[in-house]
Design a protein that fits this description.
about 240 residues; alpha+beta; Peptide Deformylase; 2 domains; 6-stranded antiparallel sheet; 7 helices; 6 strands; about 35% helix; disordered N terminus
């Protein structure tokens, strides 16, 4: 090392020490700031992300709420967070356990924008229709048509995969609204599939438990091949 480089090094050290002293940054404080930047504290439920298969919360049976608690700020805040997370992932159904909260709540919404993303042939075969935003608290399910239909199904908690899943064609779901009022919804086709999927979450089940195993597919297998395996599946929102 030349004298000039030594001088520069010493000068850099002196200026660094002056900066630290001037801004009253102790070594302990510096270490704390460094740690928080590179290793942020774990977030707490309800999450801004969706829990993934393997997380124990997805296998719990969700607990029912007391009706008088529904209007409390904590529950209303949870509903707001769930809707925000569902929209950020571009999903059309979400259960509270998926954001780390083992409570018996699910929401659904199949917007016109998402509806238009499917071809007319798929919309017809799967009996799709636009669904306005709905909330079901302490829901109960009754099968009204025991005929089963099998179509591909995915889940944000099993990100990057899909499989054919048999579901009942028609069901009736009852429960409480976001205002704590009784609600019921008789549905068939696509809407019935969404309801059954979310109800499974509240029972600690995933579609992988009832899927046609031979159809289990990585949804980006072709991109894996095209990129030589240089691809990743993000677990954060879009």
């Amino acid at each position: 090392m030349t004298i000039l480089n030594v001088y520069r090094s010493k000068s850099a050290l002196v200026y660094t020490l002056i900066f630290i002293k001037r801004h009253l940054i102790t070594f302990r404080k510096f270490r704390q700031l460094y740690t928080e930047f590179w290793f942020p504290s774990p977030s707490r439920p309800p999450y801004n992300h969706i829990c993934q298969i393997g997380d124990p919360v997805l296998r719990y049976k969700a607990e029912e709420l007391n009706a008088e608690d529904i209007k409390k700020n904590e529950i209303q805040g949870l509903l707001k967070k769930m809707r925000s997370v569902m929209h950020s992932y571009g999903s059309f159904g979400l259960a509270a356990p998926q954001v780390g909260v083992p409570l018996s709540i699910f929401i659904v919404e199949f917007s016109e924008k998402i509806y238009e993303e499917f071809s007319p042939e798929i919309r017809k075969s799967r009996e799709m229709a636009i669904i306005p935003f709905k909330v079901f608290i302490n829901p109960e399910l009754k099968i009204t048509n025991y005929e089963k239909v099998c179509f591909p199904e995915a889940c944000e908690s099993v990100r990057g995969f899909s499989a054919d899943v048999p579901r009942y064609r028609e069901v009736l779901v009852t429960g409480l609204s976001a205002e704590g009022k009784p609600v019921s919804w008789q549905v068939s086709g696509w809407a019935a599939r969404i309801v059954q999927h979310e109800m499974d979450h509240l029972s600690g089940r995933l579609y992988t438990d009832i899927m046609v195993r031979s159809t289990f597919t990585c949804t980006c297998w072709d991109k894996v091949n095209r990129t030589g395996g240089r691809i990743y599946v993000p677990f954060s929102p879009k």
